[in-house]
Amino acid sequence: MKYPFILVTICLSLFSCEYSVKTYDKTQKQDSKIRNGIKVTATAVKLEQAFLINEDGTLLPNDNKIEVKQKIKLRLITNGWVQKEGRVYLDAAQKVIVSSGEVILDQANLFRKDAIESLSVEDAKYINLIFWLDKINELFDFVTVEFRLWDKMGEGEVKGSYKVYLK
Fold it and tell me: Which residues contact 28 (CB under 8 A, 6 or more apart)?
C-alpha cells in the first residue's frame, strides 16, 4: 500500500448536562471557542466549541503535531439540533488528504456505519470524531482532515477542516 493506513472511528462522549433550547440567528456573531487552527462553519445550529484533544482528554497543543498511532479527537460542542421525541438524528463524514493532494480516506455516513440511529439531546451536544495514522509508508508535510456533521431531521450542519503534522 502506497499511503498510510488510516483508521477513523466515531466516539460519542456521554456527558450529563443541562440542556436549554437556544435559537440561532445566522446574522448574529456566535460566541465560540475554536482552537488548533480548525476552520469551521455552522448552519442552523450553534457551534459553541471546536478543538482537538488527545485520547486521555488533554488538549492537543496548537502546533497539531502527532505521532504515528496517536489518536486525536475533534471535539464539537453544539446546541440547536432538531429534536423528535427527545432524540436527535445526526450523521458524520470525514475525508483525509495528504499534503500532495491525494485522498487517502473518504468515509461517509459514519454513524450509520457504527449503527448509531439516534442520540439523546444531551449526548448530541458533545460529539467526538477520532483520527489516527496507523502507519506511514511515505513521508508527507501534513494531513488535512475534512469533517462534516449534519442533522438528518433539519438543516443543521457543522463542517470544516484541520491540519495535523508528524513529530
Answer: none
Q: What is the pLDDT of residues 19-36, one digit of tens each?
A: 222 333 333 344 449 999
Distance (Å, whole) CA 152 – CA 85: 14
Q: Is 85 within a domain?
A: yes
Q: Is 0.85 topped by the overall pTM?
A: no
Q: Alpha-carbon distance 28 to 41, whole Å?
A: 13
Structural domain that includes position 90: 6-166
Cβ–Cβ under 8 Å, residues 82 and 88: yes
Joined grid coordinates for residue 1: 500500500
How many C-beta atoms surround the C-beta of residue 85 within 10 A? 5
- Are 62 and 71 in contact by the 8 Å Cβ rule? The answer is no
Place of cell 497539531: 64
8 vs 5: CA distance, rounded Å: 10
What total of structural domains would you count in the chain? Answer: 1
Residue-wise pLDDT tens digits, 44-98: 999 999 999 999 999 999 999 999 999 999 999 999 999 999 999 999 999 999 9
